[in-house]
Design a protein that fits this description.
This protein is an all-alpha fold. It has 2 domains: 1-32; 33-178, no CATH class. Helix content is 57%, strand content 3%. The chain has 8 helices and 3 strands, in the order H-H-H-E-H-H-E-H-H-H-E. Helix 2 (37-46) crosses helix 4, helix 3 (52-71) packs across helix 4 and helix 3 crosses helix 6. The protein starts with a helix and ends with a strand.
Length: 206
């Protein structure tokens, strides 16, 4: 019996080491992947005021989104940024490259889910909360006590994206500390908005 338990624990430990190594390799792959330049040229066409330095920030935001998708373990994460979402859309158009990227980076295909296709507003809101918590994780911050907005939540405002999404640090901290209800009439994620459909309404990846 003791021998059986020993081998069982050994197998569990080896499996843990394997999965840890796989995740480390995927993180490195995402961080170093050479995205097609066309992706960001199209972003520049959509938002012509962006400088080359701004575009580099968009690329970093896209990498961050794929990282939080990796850490989400298959759970849907809402895209917090319009400009990074534009880059994601353009990447998907490279269907073969995108499929291969997803396989190596995530071990699964990351589907693009527009807000209208989500089953309920609460699913979108939970996805936004998950995106906040994981974005804080990769920025090495406590989600409930973050001292600034992570890149994906600040980039639209920082780059003055006309149709971008803006967030309140205080509201997102509070959202992270609270449990979300199954129904919601207001997302409460933005610093100001006229309706729930115009705030926190990014696409989802699942």
């Amino acid at each position: 019996m003791k021998t059986f338990l020993f081998y069982l624990l050994l197998l569990a430990f080896l499996y843990w080491l394997y999965t840890k190594k796989v995740k480390q390799n995927r993180v490195k792959f995402i961080q170093n992947y050479p995205f097609p330049k066309t992706i960001f040229e199209k972003v520049k066409e959509r938002y012509p005021h962006l400088s080359d330095k701004d575009i580099q920030l968009v690329e970093r935001g896209l990498r961050d989104y794929f990282l939080i998708a990796l850490y989400s373990k298959g759970e849907m994460v809402t895209m917090p940024s319009k400009v990074v979402d534009e880059a994601w859309h353009n990447f998907i158009l490279f269907t073969k490259l995108y499929t291969n990227f997803c396989d190596k980076a995530l071990g699964r295909f990351l589907h693009h889910i527009p807000p209208a296709a989500m089953e309920s507003k609460s699913i979108e809101e939970r996805g936004l909360k998950r995106a906040w918590e994981l974005s804080c994780k990769i920025a090495d911050m406590d989600p409930g006590y973050a001292y600034k907005l992570p890149l994906l939540f600040s980039i639209d405002s920082d780059l003055k994206i006309e149709d971008g999404l803006t967030y309140s640090l205080k509201t997102m901290q509070s959202k992270s500390k609270s449990k979300l209800s199954n129904s919601s009439s207001s997302c409460g994620s933005c610093s100001s908005c006229s309706s729930c459909s115009s705030c926190g309404g990014g696409c989802g990846g699942g």
